[in-house]
C-alpha cells in the first residue's frame, strides 16, 4: 500500500524541490489514485491511475519491476515548511534529478497522522485543478518508473552506460556526459545552463567533441547520446548568445573538420572538371516567383472546423502555483519560436499550426506516389535512390521564426522540400540525362539551385559540398476523392495513403510524447489540438468538398554525384553544428 509520506517523498524527489509538491498537493494526488474510494491506494489503484485503465497482466508485470522507491521514512518538519507554503508548482516536465533538496519538508517523529497529512496547509484541496495536478503527477512518475521510450534521452543514457569513453585519454569525461543525459531538461526552460549535480560542463563538452569525431569515423553507436546531449538545455547557459564560449569552441572544431574534408573534395571538383560538365544545368530556366505550397494546399475558410481560441483570453501562461494554468505553451516549448511566435495571439498560432498539419497530411498522402515515380526515372538512367522521410512538424514549426519569419501567411507554405528524394550518379552524364528526363515527366523545375556552378563558393557556403536542388510541381493525375478511396481504379494507392495518414498521426503523437507525456490524454490542450488537426485534415481530404480537386504539391529532387553522397557520411555530423547561428538553433535542430 502507498501512503502519504512515501508518495510525498517520491514526488518531492522527482521535482527536485520541496516547494514543488506541498502536503495539500500530495494529498490530492493520493486521492486521485484512490480509484475505488476506500481510502487506500494499493498497486492495482496506482496502476489503473498511472496507465489510465485497469492493468493488463503485462502492465502489472512492468509495474512490479519498475524502480519504485516508496520506502521513505517519516522526517521532521524543517523551517523550510513555512517558506514552501502556497508556493507549489507542477511543471509539465519536472527536473529528473532524484536527490531530495536540502530544504525539503521534514516531519518530526511522533506527530499525529492529521498533522502529517497536511491539514494545516495553506493551499486547500478545493483550490487545486485536480485534472491538471493528476496529469502532471502521472507524467512525472511515468518518466521515473517506466522503461525508457526508444530513441528518447532516457534511452540514450541507458545505451551510453555500455559505451566505451570516446577518448581513452579522458575516461572521466564519460560520467559527466552521462549525468547530463540522466538528468535531461526536456522542455523545462527553467533549467537552461543548470548543470546536474556532480556534472562538469567542460568535461561533458570534451566528451561530446570526442564522440562526434567517432561518429564521423563511422562509429554510429554514439549518435543517440550525442543527439540528446546537444539537445539538452542544461548544456547551454546562454542559448541565444552566438558568442558563448562552449558553443564557439564546438563550432570551431566543426569548421576545422569540415575544411579538411572540403578542400579534398574541391580539389576533385577541379580535377574532374565537374563545373564544365554540370555547372550550366538550369541556367536557361526563368523563375520569377518563389514557389509556395499554397498554390495547391489551401487552408479552408473554416480552418478545418476546429474550435478557435479566444484572442482576448490567452491562457497559455507560464507555470505558476498549483491550481493555475501550469502547462507550457507550444511556442515556448519549441525553443527558437519563443521570440517571434510569443507575440502571436492564440488564434494566429493555431492557424499557423493548422496549416502545417494540413500540409503534412497532404505530404504523407502523396509521398508513396512521388517516390515511386522518382525511383523509376532515376533508375532508368543508371542512378540510385535515397528517399528520406518527409519533413517533420517540429522542424517546420521552428522555421516559422527563422527562414520563414517574413513570409506571407500561412508561413509554412514556404516549405517546398517536404517531399524529397536524393538521386545519386557515378557519372555526370547520368545526372544530365536524369535532369532532362525529370523535366520531361514532371515539367520544368519551378526552382533550381546549382551547386556545381563554378561561381558557387562551396567552401564558404557548404564547406565543399556540391549538388543540384530542383523543385517541381508534382501532379499524379488523380483527384483527392480517388486518393481517399472513392475510385476503385486507385484502390491500391488509396490503401497506401490511408496507411500513411495513420503513420503520420502516430509520428506526431510520438513527437509530443517525447516531451515527457504518457499518452494523448496526459498532454496539454494545445498539443491535443494539433492531433485533432491531423484527424480533421484527413477528413478534409476525404470530404465531398475535395472529391474532384486534383492532387498537387511541390516536391524536391537532390541531384548528386556518388563522391558527394559519400562525402556526407563524414560531414553531416559537423555541418549541423556549423549551420547553427546560436546554441538555441543547435538544440532545436537536434530535437527535430
UniProtKB/TrEMBL annotation:
SUPFAM superfamilies on file:
EF-hand
Tell me the InterPro entries matching this sequence. Answer: EF-hand-dom_pair (IPR011992)
Q: Where is this region: Disordered?
A: 73-127, 150-173
Q: Where is the composition biased (Basic and acidic residues)?
A: 156-173
- For bias type Acidic residues, the affected ranges are 96-127
* Membrane-crossing segments per the record: none
Q: What is this protein called?
A: Dnajb3 protein
Which species is this UniProt entry from? Symbiodinium natans
Amino acid at each position: 500500500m502507498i501512503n502519504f509520506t512515501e508518495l510525498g517523498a517520491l514526488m518531492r524527489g522527482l521535482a527536485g524541490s520541496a516547494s514543488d509538491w506541498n502536503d495539500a498537493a500530495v494529498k490530492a494526488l493520493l486521492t486521485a489514485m484512490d480509484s475505488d474510494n476506500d481510502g487506500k491506494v494499493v498497486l492495482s489503484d496506482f496502476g489503473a491511475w498511472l496507465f489510465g485503465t485497469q492493468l493488463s497482466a503485462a502492465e502489472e508485470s512492468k509495474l512490479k519491476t519498475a524502480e519504485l522507491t516508496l520506502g521513505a521514512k517519516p522526517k521532521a518538519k524543517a523551517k523550510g515548511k513555512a517558506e514552501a507554503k502556497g508556493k507549489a508548482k507542477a511543471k509539465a516536465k519536472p527536473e529528473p534529478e532524484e536527490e531530495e533538496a536540502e530544504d525539503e519538508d521534514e516531519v518530526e517523529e511522533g506527530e499525529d497522522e492529521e498533522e502529517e497529512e497536511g491539514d494545516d496547509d495553506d493551499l486547500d484541496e478545493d483550490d487545486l485543478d485536480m485534472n491538471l495536478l493528476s496529469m502532471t503527477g502521472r507524467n512525472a512518475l511515468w518518466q521515473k518508473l517506466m522503461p525508457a521510450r526508444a530513441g528518447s534521452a532516457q534511452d540514450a543514457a541507458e545505451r551510453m552506460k555500455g559505451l566505451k569513453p570516446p577518448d581513452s585519454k579522458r575516461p572521466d569525461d564519460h560520467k559527466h556526459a552521462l549525468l547530463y543525459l540522466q538528468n535531461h531538461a526536456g522542455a523545462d526552460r527553467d533549467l537552461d545552463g543548470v548543470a546536474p549535480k556532480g556534472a562538469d560542463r567542460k568535461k561533458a563538452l570534451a566528451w561530446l567533441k570526442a564522440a562526434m569525431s567517432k561518429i564521423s569515423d563511422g562509429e554510429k553507436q554514439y549518435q543517440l547520446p550525442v543527439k540528446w546531449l546537444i539537445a539538452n538545455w542544461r548544456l547551454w547557459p546562454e542559448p541565444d548568445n552566438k558568442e558563448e564560449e562552449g558553443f564557439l569552441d564546438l563550432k570551431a572544431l566543426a569548421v576545422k573538420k569540415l575544411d579538411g574534408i572540403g578542400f579534398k573534395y574541391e580539389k576533385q571538383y577541379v580535377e574532374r572538371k565537374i563545373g564544365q560538365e554540370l555547372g550550366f544545368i538550369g541556367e536557361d530556366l526563368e523563375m520569377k516567383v518563389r514557389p509556395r505550397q499554397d498554390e495547391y494546399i489551401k487552408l479552408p475558410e473554416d480552418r478545418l472546423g476546429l474550435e478557435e481560441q479566444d484572442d482576448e483570453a490567452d491562457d497559455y501562461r507560464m507555470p505558476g502555483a498549483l491550481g493555475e494554468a501550469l502547462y507550457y505553451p507550444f511556442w515556448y516549448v519549441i525553443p527558437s519560436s519563443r521570440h517571434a511566435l510569443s507575440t502571436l495571439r492564440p488564434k494566429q498560432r493555431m492557424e499557423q499550426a493548422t496549416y502545417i498539419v494540413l500540409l503534412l497530411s497532404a505530404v504523407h498522402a502523396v509521398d508513396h506516389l512521388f517516390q515511386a515515380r522518382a525511383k523509376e526515372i532515376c533508375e532508368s538512367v543508371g542512378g540510385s535512390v535515397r528517399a528520406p522521410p518527409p519533413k517533420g512538424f517540429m522542424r517546420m514549426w521552428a522555421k516559422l521564426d527563422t527562414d520563414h519569419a517574413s513570409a506571407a501567411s500561412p508561413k509554412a507554405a514556404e516549405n517546398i522540400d517536404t517531399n524529397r528524394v536524393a538521386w545519386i550518379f557515378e557519372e555526370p552524364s547520368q545526372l544530365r540525362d536524369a535532369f532532362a528526363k525529370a523535366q520531361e515527366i514532371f515539367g520544368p523545375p519551378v526552382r533550381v539551385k546549382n551547386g556545381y556552378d563554378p561561381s558557387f563558393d562551396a567552401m564558404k557556403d557548404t564547406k565543399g559540398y556540391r549538388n543540384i536542388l530542383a523543385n517541381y510541381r508534382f501532379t499524379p493525375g488523380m483527384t483527392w476523392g480517388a486518393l481517399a478511396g472513392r475510385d476503385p481504379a486507385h484502390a491500391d494507392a488509396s490503401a497506401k495513403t490511408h496507411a500513411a495518414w495513420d503513420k503520420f498521426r502516430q509520428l506526431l503523437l510520438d513527437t509530443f510524447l517525447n516531451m515527457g507525456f504518457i499518452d494523448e490524454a496526459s498532454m496539454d490542450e494545445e498539443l491535443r489540438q494539433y492531433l485533432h488537426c491531423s484527424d480533421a485534415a484527413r477528413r478534409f481530404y476525404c470530404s465531398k468538398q475535395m472529391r474532384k480537386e486534383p492532387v498537387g504539391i511541390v516536391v524536391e529532387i537532390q541531384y548528386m554525384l556518388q563522391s558527394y553522397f559519400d562525402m556526407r557520411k563524414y560531414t553531416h555530423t559537423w555541418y549541423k553544428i556549423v549551420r547553427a547561428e546560436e546554441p538555441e538553433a543547435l538544440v532545436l535542430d537536434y530535437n527535430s
